[in-house]
Amino acid sequence: MPAVRLRAVRKVYNTGGGEVTALAGLTVDFPHGGFAAIMGPSGSGKSTLLQCAAGLDRPTSGEVYLGRTPLASLSETGLTRLRRERVGFIFQAFNLLPFLSAERNVALPLLLAGRRPRNEQTTSALAALGLGGRAHHRPAELSGGQQQRVAVARALVTRPEVLFADEPTGNLDSTTGRGVLELLRSIVDSHAQTVVMVTHDPFAASYADRVLFLRDGALAGELTGPTPQLVAERMAALEVTP
Asked: What pLDDT does 122 receive?
């Protein structure tokens, strides 16, 4: 059973100028313990795929499953509970609360789920990411890379089935970004975590097991064992192919 399944998923947005099809009947599986990168030109449907797969948005038609759970069967309350308890998120902008310490930011998903976090849960999550001495620092007292590591710890503290990452290195310099990518790679290899990452960067995509290429809301190819050069070549070909 894959960690996430999409079956003939369509997403159509109604705009002032008419309808825009963001996903055009997409079918794809994300296996347990895998690291997948999603790439494509601007407007290809990358972010929409991530949002539908994570239960942040509902598709117009088709089916999305997290494990054996069909997301269409869940109410808005059920979707909220699923996102809190079974899914983790990392965003480009970190999304840390500036008035909370690193430790309290990590504890936030547990608090929102109505669970009292134990000190060892948050401190061990931070320590595992090399932030054991930064538990009581607020985001403004941390570097960009440290803030993103806090965001990773926050995403993992509930032990989610799937970790979704939307341009997780987009606001980081190359050295700091490499550290975050190595961290994601290590949690896949060491803990069989499932990671699905949207990125525009061939170097970032090279850390994944497989790269899915989208164009016009449809799957336009797949690459396993990616390297930055191979990914860049596929992206270049995708952008010039009519």
From this structure: 83
